[in-house]
Amino acid sequence: MKVDLDKVLNLEELKIKFFAANTPFYLYEHFSKNASVMQLSLNYTSEILIKYFKNIARKKIDDLETLVKIYAVVIALTLKEYSEVFSFIKSLGSYRFRWFNEIKEIFMSQSSTSQFHDKTSRKIIVLPSYSNETAYDITAFDSKDK
Amino acid sequence: MLIKRKKSKIITQTRKKKRIPNYQGCTLSTMYKRQLHLLITRKYRNARFRSAPTNVYNCHGLVFASRRTGIHKPEVVKKIIDEDEYKLIRNPEYVKPGDIILYHSASGDIEHSGIIIEMPKTPPWVPLIWSKWGMYGEAVHRANHCEYNFANVMYYRIIE
Q1: Are strands A140-141 and B86-89 parallel, antiparallel or unpaired?
Q2: Positions in chain A whose pLDDT score sits under 50
Q3: Which of A4, B23, B125, B138 is the one with CA 20 to 30 A from B66?
Q4: Which residue of chain B is at minimal alpha-carbon distance from A17?
Q5: What DSSP line would sit under B107-154, residue for residue?
Q6: What is the pTM of this model?
């Protein structure tokens, strides 16, 4: 089965988001919630996507779209069943791409918080050692207080 | 193409002399810079991009590290806010030029930061800010006219 990412992915939208990312969490969140990435995950099996990834990842990347496709495929794979992609995601750190380690960590942290490793529970991003509750217990300040 | 190089870290510290984890991204080729500039300026015609795309620093690197490097983890930004003794400004009415704005995602990420240039004197409180958008260049823009979540922003200031 031939993978035709141009037909499935909304590359214009993904390109804008990809290069606007200041943090790996932003990239992961926006790609994993993107309808076209979800569709990619549904349309193709894990084996096909992994094969496709391995094929393009070893080539020289000389355009923006190919780079975005690589991340779209990896994040589409993180939306698959845990058991199907675990060993592949675990090996992401060995590739030369930016934030692959962080994507792996996000995937692992979501998987560890999900008892049953089902797809829907892994859509919530859990940031390691950081939460909204503890982030901002800073003394309130505004001019009126002075 | 992206010119690959070894991850380059620099020594940078908070006021309390704690290390700030950081790294400078790979160098972008002229062709990449041109493509990125076109991509973003086509979508955001009302933002004024004042510099070329670069991957050396990101928004947090602009705000907290004087453009020297990139800071990519929300917990590191939080540490800087704590240790540099930034104070939260609860009421946007009191925000002044030079204060900083942090954009939060629903999941707790600090996905963007910028420096206030001007806050309107009347509501709606949508300031004009100066920030850097990922690998794109630095932009002067309304705080709600960008790729980040303006629905959940917080303002901070260093008092002394």
Answers
A1: parallel
A2: 115-124, 128-146
A3: B125
A4: B147
A5: TS-EEEEEEEEE--SSSS---EEEEE-TTS-EEEEETTSSSS-GGGEE
A6: 0.86
